[in-house]
């Protein structure tokens, strides 16, 4: 018998394996991202219950398999979870995007308790919204900034990503390969490439110090042009690390043809 871990977990993905089993990707507090086989989960819901579904949250019992990095999910004792996420397309798409980033960017078996806390804060804030209210994009920006920082992929916004020197004022060069804004001296050639204007940069710096469920978010300026600039900048960074466009973003682009106002 392998060692057993009992740890808080959020379900990132559930797939089928054979006729009876499910293969599950979890973000856990103790072990980080884990893939586990839930034996018999397609036939019996007794051991796993409603928590064995995307965004499920609870206490997972994981037994180490014989092969390194292989786990059996023995049980998932569900907490309240986030039952209101599927009630409205806006919050569902934000939650799906956040879960996709955790699934694709978190390394296997490296504990990232900060990432779990960020994800729980975002899912909780989305779940608490009144049913008719569409989610603000600011919590999502906080989540992206915090996730990248926690994974060692943090975006330099206040000082030059290359030399650490001062940047700005006004629009400054932004180089996602070098990890953020650049001073004039480090911006070789001194022209072309992406820039970030001062308003967007100031907002991103404020957001990087806040949690996705912070009440302070409601007090921040929300000009649509600045919000779009922040989204495009961070989505560019995410695409760079992922090597592709997140599936949730493609889904939103398709849905937007049918429902305007759906946005990240
Ligand atoms: Zn520099």
As for the CATH topology of the largest domain, it is: de novo design (two linked rop proteins)
The CATH homologous superfamily of the largest domain: Recombination protein O, C-terminal domain
Total count of helical runs of at least 4 residues: 6
Task: Indicate how many domains the architecture comprises.
Answer: 2
Give the distinct bound molecules. Answer: zinc ion
Which value, in Å, is the CA radius of gyration? Answer: 20 Å
**Shape label:** globular
Broad structural category: alpha+beta
Give the helix/strand layout.
Elements: E1 4-17, E2 21-28, E3 32-38, E4 57-64, E5 71-78, H1 89-105, H2 113-128, H3 138-150, E6 172-175, E7 180-181, E8 194-196, H4 198-208, H5 224-242, H6 247-256
Parallel strand pairs: 3-5
Antiparallel strand pairs: 1-2, 1-4, 2-3, 4-5, 6-7, 6-8
Helix pairs in contact: 1-2, 1-3, 1-6, 2-3, 3-5, 4-5
Bound molecules: zinc ion.
